[in-house]
Amino acid sequence: MPRVILKQDEVEKYLHRASLLLPALEAALGNFSAGAAGGVVQPVRAVVPVRPHGGYLGVMPAYSAADDALTTKLVTFYEHKKDSSVPSHQATVLLFDPTNGSLKAVLDGSVITAKRTAAVSAIATKLLMPAFAEVLCILGAGVQAYSHYEIFMELFTFKEVMDTTGHIHFCL
Ligand SMILES: NC(=O)C1=CN([C@@H]2O[C@H](COP(=O)(O)OP(=O)(O)OC[C@H]3O[C@@H](n4cnc5c(N)ncnc54)[C@H](OP(=O)(O)O)[C@@H]3O)[C@@H](O)[C@H]2O)C=CC1
Ligand SMILES: O=C(O)C1=NCCCC1
Questions:
Q1: What distance in angstroms lies between residue 88's CA and the mean position of ligand 1's atoms?
Q2: Whose CA is nearest to atom 39 of ligand 1?
Q3: Which DSSP state fits 53?
Q4: Nearest CA to ligand 2 atom 2
Q5: Residue 163's closest CA among 144, 81, 86?
Q6: What is the secondary structure of 9-43 as a DSSP string?
Q7: Is the beta carbon of 90 within 6 A of some atom in ligand 1?
């Protein structure tokens, strides 16, 4: 059994803002882009369709030599059912001891998925956003919409934020 098990509220406590991930993610993206010299081994996510139930299981293993970190995320994503008490995306992150392969920690992956994805979008936006952009438009109004809203409002300045529920939020 792993010595560390972190439930969703505990992960949230350590990762209360997506922007906390920015330095580590920028370094990881740089290492990944450097190819073999960057020491990241991260195959394309394997996805198993669960056709009778409209779902998927994704497996996302990675090793980073710079961090000496060996991990995998397991993520299921199912067709979103309105009013379902079960989130459309559920994830777990497993952390291994890279020296001997022992399982060290099991982390709830929902908060990590929400904040990692938004933080990576923010990094891309920092590099690609035209200087004249004034309006942030968010498609959907679920978990990712919220986490993207949170970090984009922290890092950038917009005059307006629009979402697909038809709400417009005036920022200035
Ligand atoms: N690249 C990555 O790393 C990741 C990508 N994702 C992807 O991001 C997307 C959002 O995920 P997440 O926020 O967790 O999902 P949620 O289920 O929390 O939210 C989905 C949102 O999209 C809305 N929606 C669904 N269909 C439509 C449509 N046709 N037009 C407009 N809005 C629509 C839903 O509205 P309603 O509730 O009314 O149906 C809901 O608000 C998904 O495609 C997911 O797979 C997610 C995690 C990581
Ligand atoms: O990378 C992820 O995490 C996911 N990507 C697509 C949908 C499920 C989660």
A1: 8
A2: 82
A3: G
A4: 113
A5: 144
A6: HHHHHHT--GGGGHHHHHHHHHHHHTGGGGTEE-P
A7: no
Tell me, in angstroms, the distance from the centre of ligand 1 to residue 108's CA. 19
Q: Residue 156 and residue 61: Cα distance in Å, rounded?
A: 32
pLDDT digits (tens, 9 = 90+) for 82-115: 778 999 999 999 999 999 999 999 999 999 999 9
Q: What is the pLDDT of residues 108-164, one digit of tens each?
A: 999 999 999 999 999 999 999 999 999 999 998 899 999 999 999 999 999 999 988
| 79 C-alpha to ligand 1 centroid (Å) | 10
Q: Is the CB of 86 under 6 A from ligand 1?
A: no
Name the pTM for this structure: 0.94
Question: Can you list the domains of the chain with their CATH numbers?
Answer: 4-129 (3.30.1780.10)
CA distance 156 to 172: 12
- Element of type H or E holding 148: helix 143-155
Q: Atom 18, ligand 1: which residue's CA is nearest?
A: 142
